[in-house]
Amino acid sequence: MANTDESGRAITNYQDIVDFVNYYEFSSGKHGIADLAKDFPTTPWTMTVGGLAANPKSYSNEEILERFLQEERIYRMRCVEAWSMVIPWLGFPLASLLKEAVPLPNAKFVRFEAVYNPPKMPGQRAGLLDFPYVEGLRLDEAMHPLTILATGIYGKPLTKQNGAPIRLVVPWKYGFKSIKAVVKIDLVDKMPVSTWMAHSPSEYGFYANVNPEVDHPRWSQASERYIGESGHHPTLLFNGYDEVASFYHGMDLRKNF
Q1: Which pLDDT value is given to residue 26?
Q2: Who contacts 251 (Cβ-Cβ below 8 Å, separation ≥6)?
Q3: How confident is the model at residue 9 (pLDDT cuts 50, 70, 90)?
Q4: pLDDT tens profile 199-218
């Protein structure tokens, strides 16, 4: 495993990655999620892919691991709260799964839904948000090679607090877009309303691209703190993944949230 991402930035320490987590299904805090999630069942697991698809299908986690070649992807992950990490994921391109589903011509977006299990997820009982957690991407964003479904981290199976057994990772968007514990993926013709859009429409929009020039109402996005290090560093547009810029040509990026 490499020690840096492609820009030369050092990979975040494993313990920091698994101990400092946003996972509202368990808690609004960032520490102690592993203890809260220890009894959360990740097997058996079924993820359905359907909606506007010619070949809808359900996959067990074992089928996902066997059918799709797992590869390492070292990505920067930027939270809207202005902290960031560099994480070595194991996973596969979401496009591989969607191509098997065969999107119909009127499919324009992808809607993701996370597991709903209040007995094992105390945050779902606390009324922090309306659950199950929902996210969405435009179909072209979902098909981009950078967009992956992750099944592992640091060369190991994905931990429960990091979204096991399978989660979305979209590195040029803020971390809340990378939905955890996915059980349902649907191709749809209309833009999905995500959980944070529904909860705080004045603070969260659909695209949520990392952008230093567009502040969240509560957090400046001009700089970020690297977890495990001191000081602040300039935020990069699209989190430095400039290859996606063409997706948003002509759009007003000031309407990010």
Answers
A1: 98
A2: none
A3: very high
A4: 999 999 999 999 999 999 99
DSSP classification of residue 174: -
| The two structure tokens encoding residue 253 | 């990026």
Asked if 107 and 189 touch (Cβ cutoff 8 Å), the reply is yes
Per cent of the chain over pLDDT 90 is: 95
For residues 185 and 133, what is the distance between their CA atoms, to the nearest angstrom? Answer: 12
Closest C-alpha among 248, 113, 233 to residue 180? 113
Distance CA 175, CA 214 (A): 16
SS3 246: helix
Secondary structure letter of residue 13 according to DSSP: P
Q: Which amino acid is at 254?
A: R
The string of DSSP letters for 122-160 reads HHHHTTSS-SS-EEEEEHHHHHSTT-EEEEEETTEEPPG
Tell me the two tokens of residue 110: 């992808």
pLDDT at 255 over 90: no
In terms of Cβ atoms closer than 10 Å to its own Cβ (0-12, 13-18, 19+), residue 9 is middle
Q: How confident is the model at residue 256 (pLDDT cuts 50, 70, 90)?
A: low
158: which 2 tokens? 């994905």
Enumerate residues 6+ apart whose C-beta is below 8 A from 44: 60, 61
Average pLDDT, the chain: 96
Q: Where are the alpha helices (DSSP H) in 20-143?
A: 33-37, 61-67, 94-101, 122-125, 139-143
Buried b (16+ CB within 10 A) or exposed e, 210-237: bbeebebeeeebeebebbeeeeeeebbb
